[in-house]
Amino acid sequence: MTDNAVVLNEHTTNEQAQAETHPACRFSIAPMLDWTDRHCRYFHRLLSGHTQLYTEMVTTGAIIHGKGDYLAYNEEEHPLVLQLGGSNPAELAHCAKLAQERGYDEVNINVGCPSDRVQNGRFGACLMGEAELVAQGVAAMREVVDIPVSVKTRIGIDDQDSYEFLTDFIGIVSEKGGCKDFTIHARKAWLSGLSPKENREIPPLDYPRVYQLKRDFPHLTMAINGGVKTMEEIEAHLQHMDGVMVGREAYQNPYLLAEIDQRLFGSSDPVKKRREIVEAMYPYIERQLAEGTYLNHVTRHMLGLFQNMPGARQWRRHISENAHKPGSGIEVLEQALAKIPAHLDV
Question: Which residues form the DUS-like FMN-binding domain (predicted)?
Answer without folding.
Answer: 29-337
